[in-house]
Amino acid sequence: LGPAHHPLAFAVTGEGKWVVSGSEDKCVYVWDVQSKQVLQRLEGHKDAVLGVACHPKRAVIASCALAADP
To answer: Which terminus of the chain has fewer Cβ atoms in its 10 Å neighbourhood, N or C?
Structure first.
Protein backbone atom coordinates (compact mmCIF):
# COMPACT_ATOMS: atom_id res chain seq x y z
CA LEU A 1 0.00 0.00 0.00
CA GLY A 2 1.21 3.43 -0.88
CA PRO A 3 1.63 6.51 1.28
CA ALA A 4 -1.86 7.78 0.39
CA HIS A 5 -3.48 4.84 2.20
CA HIS A 6 -4.70 6.32 5.47
CA PRO A 7 -7.59 4.26 6.84
CA LEU A 8 -10.52 6.38 8.00
CA ALA A 9 -13.18 3.73 8.69
CA PHE A 10 -13.31 0.05 9.59
CA ALA A 11 -15.87 -2.76 9.72
CA VAL A 12 -15.55 -6.47 10.48
CA THR A 13 -17.53 -9.12 8.62
CA GLY A 14 -20.06 -11.13 10.62
CA GLU A 15 -17.89 -14.24 10.74
CA GLY A 16 -14.78 -12.23 11.64
CA LYS A 17 -12.68 -13.46 8.70
CA TRP A 18 -12.24 -10.08 6.99
CA VAL A 19 -11.88 -6.44 7.86
CA VAL A 20 -13.07 -3.76 5.45
CA SER A 21 -11.45 -0.33 5.55
CA GLY A 22 -12.24 2.97 3.90
CA SER A 23 -9.28 5.12 3.00
CA GLU A 24 -8.15 8.64 2.22
CA ASP A 25 -6.95 7.34 -1.18
CA LYS A 26 -10.63 6.97 -2.31
CA CYS A 27 -10.54 3.15 -2.09
CA VAL A 28 -12.12 0.41 0.00
CA TYR A 29 -9.86 -2.44 1.08
CA VAL A 30 -10.83 -5.97 2.10
CA TRP A 31 -8.26 -7.52 4.45
CA ASP A 32 -7.78 -11.12 5.58
CA VAL A 33 -7.62 -11.06 9.38
CA GLN A 34 -5.27 -14.04 9.77
CA SER A 35 -2.73 -13.18 7.08
CA LYS A 36 -3.10 -9.38 7.45
CA GLN A 37 -3.00 -9.13 3.65
CA VAL A 38 -5.19 -7.08 1.33
CA LEU A 39 -7.48 -9.41 -0.63
CA GLN A 40 -9.16 -6.73 -2.71
CA ARG A 41 -8.84 -3.03 -3.45
CA LEU A 42 -12.10 -1.50 -4.61
CA GLU A 43 -11.98 1.78 -6.53
CA GLY A 44 -14.71 4.13 -7.67
CA HIS A 45 -15.23 6.85 -5.09
CA LYS A 46 -14.33 10.43 -6.01
CA ASP A 47 -13.18 11.41 -2.51
CA ALA A 48 -11.98 9.93 0.79
CA VAL A 49 -14.02 6.96 2.03
CA LEU A 50 -15.39 7.91 5.46
CA GLY A 51 -17.71 5.00 6.15
CA VAL A 52 -17.89 1.26 5.54
CA ALA A 53 -20.34 -1.40 6.71
CA CYS A 54 -20.67 -5.16 6.31
CA HIS A 55 -23.86 -7.19 6.11
CA PRO A 56 -23.89 -9.53 9.12
CA LYS A 57 -24.66 -12.70 7.11
CA ARG A 58 -24.09 -12.01 3.41
CA ALA A 59 -21.04 -11.06 1.36
CA VAL A 60 -22.18 -7.45 0.96
CA ILE A 61 -20.38 -4.28 1.93
CA ALA A 62 -21.42 -0.63 1.69
CA SER A 63 -19.24 2.45 1.64
CA CYS A 64 -19.68 6.21 1.56
CA ALA A 65 -17.28 9.00 0.64
CA LEU A 66 -16.77 12.61 1.66
CA ALA A 67 -18.05 13.97 -1.67
CA ALA A 68 -21.12 12.76 -3.49
CA ASP A 69 -20.32 10.19 -6.15
CA PRO A 70 -22.20 10.27 -9.44
So the answer is: C
